[in-house]
Amino acid sequence: MNAVDIEMNAVDIEVVGLEKRFGNVAAVHGATFTAPAGQVTGFIGANGAGKSTTLRMLVGLTTPDGGSAHFGGTPYRALARPSRTVGAVLDIAGAHPSMTAIGHLRTYAALGGHAPGRIGDVISLTGLESYAHRRIRGFSTGMRQRLALATALLGDPAVLVLDEPSNGLDPAGIVWLRRFIRQFADAGGTVLISSHVLAELEQVVDGVVLIDAGRILWSGTRTQLVERGGLEAMYFQLAAIGELA
Ligand SMILES: Nc1ncnc2c1ncn2[C@@H]1O[C@H](COP(=O)(O)OP(=O)(O)O)[C@@H](O)[C@H]1O
Ligand SMILES: [Mg+2]
């Protein structure tokens, strides 16, 4: 793939006291954390922990019951050109099966008001060259993930919000994705990426936010995490002090 070689504006993500209930379920309770520009922040928690609900609230797809999320000081809904600030991959089900990859990207480029020349850029950034003219119907989950990422990159955003993007990726795809997000952050971008697999992100993240049963259990740098024995050990320590049910 090509390097992400353009320095970006620094846009931090600041999340303060986010709340979301679904009936009796407190899906997210008082979530407060920061994902700084120039860093990869891993958002780690088991299935049902509240990762997707939190990420959906960040980009206005779910309305919070309380709290706030800001991108460089501005809520998502108040951003002048949201897709130029934040690229989000939250759900890969959206692409129409009879469309080709390039047709899908043309549609989204038109919708977002992005330059047509950007389509070729995102195809090469995500390694979709040989898939560009194929119909999405025949795509593996991994290729759908790449197409969703390509779509999110159309606006050349400073921030990437990725919900479990390694689901369905083969090992080579996971290595590719890690390298991609590392380069994106090294160029000044902000990456917030969720996973339920502890080991998957440990090598690539600068910061870690642990969520369990809707509450942020711990957040800190990878260095602090390593000092405490890694993610697995952290979970055991939190369980031992009664932080985990
Ligand atoms: N639309 C919804 N309606 C009702 N409950 C939901 C909805 N979305 C999520 N939940 C519940 O909220 C909790 C957190 O879910 P989610 O944010 O999807 O977790 P994760 O992404 O970490 O697996 C779970 O208990 C889930 O069942
Ligand atoms: Mg989820």
Describe this structure in words.
- Helix 4 crosses helix 5.
- The relative contact order is 0.20.
- The termini are far apart.
- The longest helix is centred in the last third of the chain and has 16 residues.
- Strands 5-6-7-3-8-9 form a six-stranded mixed sheet, sandwiched between helices. The protein has a three-stranded antiparallel sheet with strand order 2-1-4, covered by helices on one side.
- The chain has 245 residues and is of the alpha/beta class.
- It has one domain: P-loop containing nucleotide triphosphate hydrolases (Rossmann fold), CATH 3.40.50.300.
- The radius of gyration is 18 Å and the shape is globular.
- A hairpin with a 2-residue loop joins strand 1 and strand 2.
- The mean pLDDT is 91.
Furnish the topology, listing elements before pairings:
Layout: E1 13-22, E2 25-35, E3 40-44, H1 51-58, E4 66-71, H2 82-85, E5 86-89, H3 101-112, H4 117-125, H5 141-152, E6 159-162, H6 171-186, E7 190-195, H7 198-202, E8 207-212, E9 215-221, H8 222-227, H9 230-240
Parallel strand pairs: 3-7, 3-8, 5-6, 6-7
Antiparallel strand pairs: 1-2, 1-4, 8-9
Bound molecules: adenosine-5'-diphosphate and magnesium ion.
